């Protein structure tokens, strides 16, 4: 059994390497150039009659340019020596297009950052004009999958360039229909969602065989030349918003308090008015009743009213002095407290 030495790294040997090995082995045998030629043709035919499709790929088999079939992951065979050719597409992989920047290297070591290229060569596709005539720098990515590999290869001449041109045109229109402040702050998600829907619609119309996964805005900033002025304006807007929020907070606190005090005052005034009216009506009713009794018995009623008035008046007094104008030598003392005893003793002045 002949052992083939693989190149460094374990990669698949090329056709030239195989032919060289075969020629070296055939030099040991006798049979002439014809045998060597036949053996070389057989090896070439067998070598070009099989191909391998990786797990994330789909193979498109073409016979003289015409698509014959597709092949899934695994080992497959085809007509050899250029009769059938295979084109492999990563249909199970998420592909990405970057706008405004380029990924230089992706870090696989913890703690090491991925490096990006954001030089001025990419500014032509990221600088955009907004609806309020401001210029902003928008960087974004588009991720997609190859949904139909046959359409991806043959329906559009250059599918990758078509995706880039379509995406840039749609993104410029979405940004141009909005204010620059909206794109920089709260409108980023809406811009990405609107762009994704519009891009997918156009690519479906083109029958490109592509299905978008996501459209995401990475970094949205003003141009470097106007960043200081933009930061000052942004700080002023933040101060204004902060002042408005503070005033609104105070208004929300004071207005309900004032309304509560006003409602309380109105309720107290209404209660006082109702009390006065009811008291006046009661007094009027009482006076009418007394008048009726007085008309029937004036002397009795007059005396009863006098006694009731004196009873109410004297009940609030703590002491009472009764002075007789005819008696000057002695002042009688009449205590009115409930605990005291009446006494007729007097005191010489």
Automatic annotation (TrEMBL):
Its main location: membrane. The chain crosses the membrane at residues 34-53. Keywords: Membrane, Transmembrane, Transmembrane helix. CDD domains: SPFH_HflK. It is a single-pass membrane protein. This is Protein HflK. HflC and HflK may interact to form a multimeric complex. Residues 48-234 form the Band domain. The keyword ATP-binding does not apply. Coiled coil: none annotated. It is found in: Membrane. The keyword Membrane applies. GO terms for cellular component: membrane. Belongs to the band 7/mec-2 family. HflK subfamily. It comes from Desulfosarcina ovata subsp. sediminis. SUPFAM superfamilies: Band 7/SPFH domain. HflC and HflK could encode or regulate a protease.
């Amino acid at each position: 059994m002949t052992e083939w030495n693989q190149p460094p790294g374990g990669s698949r040997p090329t056709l030239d390497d195989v032919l060289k090995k075969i020629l070296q082995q055939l030099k040991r045998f006798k049979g002439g150039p014809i045998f060597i030629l036949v053996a070389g043709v057989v090896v070439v035919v067998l070598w070009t009659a099989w191909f391998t499709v990786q797990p994330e790929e789909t193979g498109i088999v073409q016979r003289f340019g015409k698509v014959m079939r597709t092949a899934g992951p695994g080992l497959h065979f085809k007509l050899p020596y250029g009769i059938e050719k295979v084109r492999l597409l990563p249909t199970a992989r998420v592909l990405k297009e970057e706008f405004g920047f380029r990924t230089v290297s992706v870090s696989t070591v913890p703690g090491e950052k991925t490096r990006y290229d954001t030089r001025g060569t990419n500014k032509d596709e990221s600088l955009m004009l907004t609806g309020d005539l401001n210029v902003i720098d928008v960087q974004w990515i588009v991720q997609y999958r190859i949904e139909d590999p046959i359409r991806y290869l043959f329906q559009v001449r250059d599918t990758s360039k078509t995706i880039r041109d379509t995406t840039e045109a749609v993104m410029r229109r979405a940004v141009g229909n909005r204010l620059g402040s909206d794109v920089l702050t709260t409108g980023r998600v809406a811009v990405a969602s609107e762009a994704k829907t519009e891009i997918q619609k156009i690519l479906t119309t083109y029958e490109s065989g592509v299905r978008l996964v996501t459209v995401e805005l990475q970094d949205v900033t003003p141009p470097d030349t106007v960043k200081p002025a933009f930061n000052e304006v942004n700080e002023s807007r933040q101060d204004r918003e902060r002042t408005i929020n503070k005033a609104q907070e105070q208004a929300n606190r004071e207005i309900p308090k004032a309304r509560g005090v006003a409602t309380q005052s109105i309720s107290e005034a209404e209660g006082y008015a109702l009390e006065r009216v009811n008291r006046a009506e009661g007094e009027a009713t009482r006076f009418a009743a007394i008048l009726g009794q007085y008309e029937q018995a004036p002397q009795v009623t007059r005396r009863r009213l006098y006694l009731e008035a004196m009873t109410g008046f004297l009940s609030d007094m703590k002491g009472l002095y009764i002075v007789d104008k005819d008696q000057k030598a002695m002042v009688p003392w009449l205590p009115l407290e409930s605990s005291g005893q009446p006494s007729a003793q007097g005191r010489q002045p």
